[in-house]
């Protein structure tokens, strides 16, 4: 005869309650910045620098001081196509940097829902290369125009500041392109 051992009865109050995570609990492991790559913060900082440099470069060309020449007409950047090209490239780079900064903030806030990482890496790499080429070509075209200007005009000062800021912007975009290239190589290898 087999006898079955009786199961001890427990009241529901005596059973252990499983712990469920609360969305309001704070833990060091739940901080998003710690789980993010350090390249993402560096990339966001570089995009912010690109936004500031491109804005200041375009603004310096668009708003020189209103000093008059002997003829009575103030020289402007839109009178010369090469300076206008430099201005347009700086505006396009400003728009691109604003888009990249917005995308980076959305990636942090929404965990990469805006655009997939693979597509984003390729777009960033291609457009960083393109923006770098446009910046260096517009700056190199503007230098001979600046050398032929009268050094006492406000447009000469504004164009000089704009080209210097464009070169600094090129260095920032080139660094961003290196980070984008690193992310693509890392994606291909792994």
From TrEMBL:
Q: Where are the transmembrane segments?
A: 44-63, 83-102, 122-146, 158-179
Cellular compartments per GO CC: plasma membrane
Q: Could you tell me where this protein is found in the cell?
A: Cell membrane
User: How is the protein disposed in the membrane?
Assistant: Multi-pass membrane protein
Q: What keywords would UniProt list here? A: Cell membrane, Membrane, Transmembrane, Transmembrane helix
Q: Which residues form the Casparian strip membrane protein domain?
A: 37-177
Tell me any Pfam family this protein matches. CASP_dom
Q: Its family?
A: Belongs to the Casparian strip membrane proteins (CASP) family.
What is the protein's quaternary organization? Answer: Homodimer and heterodimers.
* Name this protein carries in UniProt: CASP-like protein
């Amino acid at each position: 005869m087999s006898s079955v051992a009786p199961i001890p009865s427990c009241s529901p109050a005596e059973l252990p309650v499983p712990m469920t995570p609360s969305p309001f609990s704070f833990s060091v492991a739940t901080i998003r910045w710690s789980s993010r790559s350090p390249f993402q913060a560096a990339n966001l900082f570089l995009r912010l620098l690109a936004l500031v440099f491109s804005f200041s470069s375009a603004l310096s060309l668009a708003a020189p001081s209103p000093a008059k020449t002997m003829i009575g007409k103030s020289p402007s950047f839109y009178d010369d196509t090469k300076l206008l090209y430099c201005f347009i490239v700086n505006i396009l780079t400003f728009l691109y940097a604003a888009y990249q900064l917005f995308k980076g903030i959305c990636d942090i806030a929404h965990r990469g829902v805006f655009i997939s990482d693979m597509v984003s890496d390729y777009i960033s790499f291609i457009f960083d290369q393109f923006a770098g080429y446009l910046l260096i070509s517009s700056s190199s075209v503007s230098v001979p125009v600046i050398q032929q200007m009268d050094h006492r005009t406000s447009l000469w000062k504004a164009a000089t500041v704009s080209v210097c800021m464009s070169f600094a912007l090129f260095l920032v975009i080139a660094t961003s392109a290196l980070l984008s290239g690193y992310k693509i190589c890392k994606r291909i290898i792994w």
